[in-house]
Each structure stands twice: as C-alpha cells, then as structure tokens.
Design the sequence.
C-alpha cells in the first residue's frame, strides 16, 4: 500500500490562514450549573480568596453575581479599610483621567477638544467664556428654526452642539 500524503495544518510562510485557526475541534467547557448545556466562559470564584473557579454561562454568571458580597465575613471596619486601600490604589488612574487616552500629556487640551475648538473657530488657548460666546453665536446663526430650508445649517448646528458638549464636559472635569 502506497503512502498517501495528508494535508498539512500549516502551509508554511506566508501563512494562508488566520492565526489561531486550525482544523482541530475546539474544546468547549459547559456551564457548571446543573442541567445547563450552554458554554461556560465566565469564571467566578467558588469562595472568597480562593483560586478555584466555577465556569458559568452569561445568564448563570449574572445570577451568581447578584448574590455576591465582596465584603462577606468582614466587620464594618475591615470592609472600610479594604475599600479605602483599593480606592487609594486606583486614585492615580482617576487623576490622569482627563488625558483621555490620547491627550498630549502636558495638561493642555486633548485632540477632541482641539477639534471642537476648530469647529467653533477659536484658538487653542480660548477660555470657556469665549467657547460659550462662540457657541451661542454659531447656534443662533445655524439653528434650524432660523434657517428652515437649509439642510447644511442643520448639520452645522449639530456639529456646533457636539463641539460645545465636548468642551463643556472637559471644563467640568477639570473643575472637579
């Protein structure tokens, strides 16, 4: 009997299939809830501070989490101390929140704020009073009630409104 070549799972370089894709069957873990046949892709701790996990489907994970008490077994003082410790560890993220993923990092305005200022026709260093004045002026000029037959005015009005909202929320965030 002659040896018949089998198909390879990897055809060399360049790869002609996606990474992580293969022909073999993927193992599926079922939900640990008795009688459930859904895939169990949501891990949940079996007990506090335990590395052992249950694996539930989304519905049963939601049911499990409704009754979960993170501070179970702790006194009021211990619970307050744990909460204060975790809040203290997360304060650095809270203070850096205004950089909004892509800000310049020097405390100036983010790219979204720069675009909003350009829509309002203002300079990069405009204060919020100038923003409010430009917003009112442009909103009055482009309001759909003032220009009922102009569809471009409605689009300009919406962009002015969106730009003002971006700058207003940024100013409130900095003031807080």
Sequence:
């Amino acid at each position: 009997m002659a040896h018949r070549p089998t198909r390879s799972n990897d055809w060399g370089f360049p790869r002609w299939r996606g990474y992580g894709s293969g022909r073999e069957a993927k193992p599926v873990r079922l939900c640990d809830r008795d009688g459930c046949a859904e895939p169990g892709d949501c891990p949940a701790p079996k007990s506090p501070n335990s590395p052992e996990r249950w694996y539930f489907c989304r519905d049963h994970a939601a049911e499990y989490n409704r009754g979960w008490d993170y501070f179970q077994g702790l006194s009021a003082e211990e619970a307050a101390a744990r909460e204060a410790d975790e809040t203290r560890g997360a304060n650095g993220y809270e203070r850096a929140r205004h950089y909004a993923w892509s800000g310049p990092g020097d405390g100036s305005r983010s790219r979204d704020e720069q675009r909003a200022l350009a829509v309002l026709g203002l300079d990069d260093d405009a204060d919020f009073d100038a923003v409010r004045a430009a917003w009112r002026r442009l909103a009055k000029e482009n309001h759909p009630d003032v220009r009922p037959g102009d569809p471009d005015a409605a689009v300009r009005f919406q962009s002015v409104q969106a730009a003002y909202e971006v700058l207003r929320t940024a100013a409130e965030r900095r003031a807080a």
